[in-house]
């Protein structure tokens, strides 16, 4: 396929409710979409970088700049989707920007060939169990109301954002109110230090599935030390930036479970390699989320259908974050989302809806 160019589409999507994590509160998501135009078909990619470099070093304006000046021009010669990462390797970092570009080229290729993302990645299921991520709330009562609502919607796993001062109490309250059968895990987004080990061990009696990324993303040794002091399995998110990083973290005993986010590791092809490395070591994985629209959500659901994804992921319904998605919405059915079966991502933006939320577009000729 010959890449003619990429359209950068900046959209603004208000969240149905503020989403608070240990690194900040989001009320509106500014998202960079990529529409790759090739001689065969067009393909879509969604960059998961946030507005501000708070989750990782990437941010929306930076992603747009590196795509405009370096990444899209690097594909001028025309490469297959499997050739995108090698063609971009000389540029350091910017994994989320690279992931969006590779996804758009892969989507175009698959649509032209009439093959689905799930089939390309090696999906073995037609629907995936959905968990939900619950932000830090203003009170325990507000938290319990939110969790009650999600359980009523059918979510099969609850993930609570935690931070110092909001950890043991919320977990205890959810266990007391909803019982021990609810699949429950916590996500600290790097908010603790290895000196907090004794405090975090207070979570052990609550039979959590895992504690996600308690320490700094670069503190592999600290996570290994912490894992030896906790009964709750340690799961890594921010630390796992590639298949190699996954192999190293597992070898050092820094994690027993891995959250796979394609944007964080540079794309869905690298995400499959992370899956394969974890599967080779018997390490369960689950699909993380970055508040994606239906475009990124479609790709994540396809990835979550691979055999090693044995834990419910943050693959929530569209309505968890957006009143109205830019694609046909993903809707929970018996706690599951259906894996799209159409060519490529299997979904595409609804033109009128996309126009409503678009704040800027820019054409970059390859
Ligand atoms: O369900 C989702 O899409 C979001 C899941 C979630 O909690 N994402 C968190 C995370 O740290 O994993 C996040 C939110 C916003 C920005 C970055 C990360």
Question: How would you describe this structure in keywords?
Answer:
single chain, 366 residues, alpha/beta, seven-stranded parallel β-sheet, four-stranded antiparallel β-sheet, 13 helices, 13 strands, 33% helix, 22% strand, globular, binds N-succinyl phenylglycine
Got a strand count?
13
- What is the helix tally? 13
User: Taking strands numbered 1, 2, ... along the chain, how are they ordered across the largest sheet?
Assistant: 5-6-7-8-9-10-11
- SSE series: EEEHHHHEEHEHEHEHEHEHHEHEHE
Give the low-confidence spans. none
- In what range is the share of β-strand residues? 15-25%
List the bound ligands. Answer: N-succinyl phenylglycine
The helix fraction, in percent, is 25-40%
Measure the end-to-end span.
Answer: 12 Å
The general outline is: globular
